[in-house]
Structure formats: C-alpha cells, structure tokens
Amino acid sequence: MMQKKNKGSLEVVCGPMFSGKSDELIRRMRRAKIAKQRVIVFKHRIDNRYAVSHVASHDGTTIEAHAVNSVQEIQALVQQGFYDVLGFDEVQFFPSDIVPLICAYVEEGKRVVAAGLDLDFRGEPFGSMPILLAMADTVHKLQAICSICGQEAHFTQRLVNGNPAKYDEPIILVGAQEAYQARCRNCYSIDKLPMPIKDGQKQNCI
Is 36 left (phi over 0), alpha (psi -120 to 50) or beta? Predict the structure, then answer.
C-alpha cells in the first residue's frame, strides 16, 4: 500500500506598514535554513525600495530574494531547486493567479509563508490577501505603533505633501516613511469611507 504524501501548509503574516511583516518573514525563512530545509524567497519586482535582490525590512534586516513579475517566473525558479519552503514578501502586489499557485504548492507538500498588507491605504482589503487569509492554516496579524497617538495601529495612512491622500488616488504607490504612516483607527483619515465588498454589496465599516 502506497504511503500518502503529506501536504504542506500556508502561513500568512499581515498588518499595516511598519508592523514588522518582513522581519517576521525573514525570521521564519532563517529558521527554516537552520533546520536544513531548502528555502526560496520571492518579492514583486515593483518593490525596489531598498534592494532588488533582497527582501529588506524597514530596520535593515535582509534576506536574499528573487524579484519577479509573474507566476511563470516563480514556477521556473521553484522547479530548478525542489524547495521545501517558499516565502513571499508583499504578496498583495502579485496578480490574482498567485492564489492557485500557492494552493498548488501547499498540495505538493511545501510550506508557504506569505507576508503582506491586509488593507490598502483606503482601508480596504488588498489584492489577493483576503483569499489567502481565509485559506491559511495560520494567520499572524501584526500591529504597528500609531505615529500620531502611540496606540496600536492597524491602518496604513498614505500622505501627499504631509496630508492624507484622497480615496481616489492609485492604490499602489511604493514608498516608505516619506509617503506612509501607521495609524490607529481614531487617527486614520480618508475622505471617503472604506467600502469592502461583501456578498456583492459594498458596506461601510468605519
């Protein structure tokens, strides 16, 4: 009787900017390496804030990573090395076909760790993160420190010339402290209420 192959797992690390998501991803990848597991890390090529060939936290911690644009690039790289653990930083930047790819790797027995923003600057679910969060084996939701009042921050505030960005501005704008702050619900500001989609209808949550 053939032994059934064990499936893998999906771990999602999420939170606002400056909450330590990349630090946590890097920590888990390094621990996997210490355990002699074969590790590969991916980032979207659009994220060039600190280094193209590394995932870098805001505190300066880094780990080598492959900057890619498509799932086809990811597949080609994974096939070359037969990896045990796959890490994805800023997974919200990847196209929607990242979800079935991650699910396929989990079915194959791989451990996948995906880190990213759960909410965009509008306060709405970001990209494929809601689906990944729902499908994850474990979720680690981090908080930052509100730059205004010092309380726990769950939101990412985009700034334009020092003022809160407007709701209708482009969702993706790569930046760091010069363009974003972490804020609590009370200090977060947007000119329109966030409108997450539920059952085909938009509903206010703030």
Answer: left
32 and 39 Cβ atoms separated by less than 8 Å? yes
Q: What is the DSSP string of 8-63?
A: -EEEEEEESTTSSHHHHHHHHHHHHHHTT--EEEEEETT--SS-SSEEE-TTS-EE
Backbone angles phi, psi at 101, to 5 degrees: -65, -45
Q: How far does the chain reach from its first CA to its final CA, in angstroms? A: 56
For residues 88 and 113, is the Cβ–Cβ distance under 8 A?
Answer: yes
Q: State the Cα–Cα distance between residues 95 and 181, nearest whole angstrom.
A: 25
The question of whether 90 is a catalytic residue gets the answer yes
Neighbours of 82 (CB within 10 A): 8
Out of 90, 124, 169, 178, which one is annotated catalytic? 90
3-state helix, strand, coil in the chain (%, to 5): 20, 30, 50
What the chain holds in terms of domains, given with CATH numbers, is: 9-202 (3.40.50.300)
Among residues 88, 74, 12, which one has the least CA distance to residue 43? 88
pLDDT (tens digit, 9 = 90+) per residue, 52-91?
778 877 677 889 999 999 999 999 999 998 899 999 999 9
